[in-house]
């Protein structure tokens, strides 16, 4: 089957609401998940989760393996359970969510301003990305006021999720499981990482999550920026 047909088939599989919810749950986890875990998280019966997860695997959106969830081996260890994780490929242009139009607009503005002023383009791009992040953060607060500190991080993560970063908490920090500019980051890593850093920094500043800082902290198969508690 041609790749374009496979891509459209994958998108069609996600049109079903429960199937999409299961897919998004699996993608947000740091480790493969079982049918029972996925069913409980989404609030559906196990047999329904099994049907949809296996359909997502058949469409190439998820990969699966088998493991004993008890951690035991040998006789009496129990049967293996099927576990699912996101397949390491993009589906069309939006799964995972990508924001290439936003990246192109920011880069074009940076090149134009750099040409006009003589300021290095990377410096201008940082300024533009930070302003974009502040605009996103201000839209979350609505009236322009800062979010109460106890709610600020959740507000920031909600906004980042809307722009495809797939944020998740890992202990006292938050990581971005997806880079919305993934294809660009592979060929223009430094440029995109600094753009991400400035955008996320501007966003957390706008929502008032000042107990956290955006830090360049590259990791495998995720965005290069994490949100880390500021030193006291």
Identify the strand order in the major beta sheet. Answer: 4-5-7-6
**Could you say how many structural domains there are in total?**
2
SSE sequence, one letter per element: HHEHHEEHHHEEHHEE
Q: Within the CATH hierarchy, at the fold level, what is the topology of the largest domain? A: Muramoyl-pentapeptide Carboxypeptidase, domain 2
- Give the N-to-C terminal Cα separation: 56 Å
Mean pLDDT comes to: 84
The helix content is 40-55%
- Which parts are unreliable, with pLDDT below 50 for 5 consecutive residues or more? 1-9
Structure annotation, total helices: 9
Query: Which secondary-structure class do the elements indicate?
Result: alpha+beta
Short descriptors:
232 residues, Arc Repressor Mutant, subunit A, 2 domains, disordered N terminus, Muramoyl-pentapeptide Carboxypeptidase, domain 2, elongated, 9 helices, alpha+beta
What does this structure look like?
With 232 residues, this protein is of the alpha+beta class. It folds into two domains: 3-86, Winged helix-like DNA-binding domain superfamily/Winged helix DNA-binding domain (Arc Repressor Mutant, subunit A); 100-229, Muramoyl-pentapeptide Carboxypeptidase, domain 2 (2-Layer Sandwich). It is built from nine helices and seven strands, in the order ααβααββαααββααββ. The chain has helices at 3-13, 17-27, 35-42, 46-58, 100-117, 121-141, 149-162, 182-187, 189-207, and strands at 33-34, 62-67, 81-86, 167-170, 173-176, 212-216, 225-229. The strands form two sheets. Strands 4-5-7-6 form a four-stranded antiparallel β-sheet. α2 packs across α3. It is elongated and about 65 Å long. Residues 1-9 have low confidence and may be disordered.
């Amino acid at each position: 089957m041609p790749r374009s047909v496979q891509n459209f088939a994958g998108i069609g599989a996600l049109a079903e609401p429960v199937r999409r919810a299961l897919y998004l749950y699996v993608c947000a986890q740091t480790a493969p998940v079982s049918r029972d875990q996925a069913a409980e998280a989404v609030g559906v019966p196990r047999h329904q989760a099994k049907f949809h997860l296996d359909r997502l695997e058949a469409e190439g959106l998820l990969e699966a393996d088998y493991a004993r969830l008890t951690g035991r081996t040998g006789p009496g260890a129990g049967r293996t359970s099927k576990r699912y994780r996101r397949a390491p490929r993009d589906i069309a242009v939006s799964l995972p969510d990508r924001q290439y139009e936003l990246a192109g607009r920011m880069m074009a503005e940076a090149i134009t301003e750099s040409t006009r002023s003589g300021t290095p383009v990377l410096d201008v791009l940082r300024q533009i990305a930070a302003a974009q992040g502040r605009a996103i953060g201000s839209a979350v607060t609505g009236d322009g006021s800062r979010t109460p500190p106890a709610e600020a991080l959740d507000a920031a993560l909600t906004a980042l999720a809307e722009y495809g970063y797939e944020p998740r908490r890992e202990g006292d920090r938050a990581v971005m499981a997806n880079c919305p500019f993934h294809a660009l980051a592979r060929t223009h890593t430094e440029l995109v990482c600094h753009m991400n850093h400035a955008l996320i920094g501007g966003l957390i500043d706008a929502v008032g999550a000042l107990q956290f800082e955006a830090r360049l902290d590259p990791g495998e198969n995720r965005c290069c920026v994490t949100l880390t508690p500021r030193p006291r």
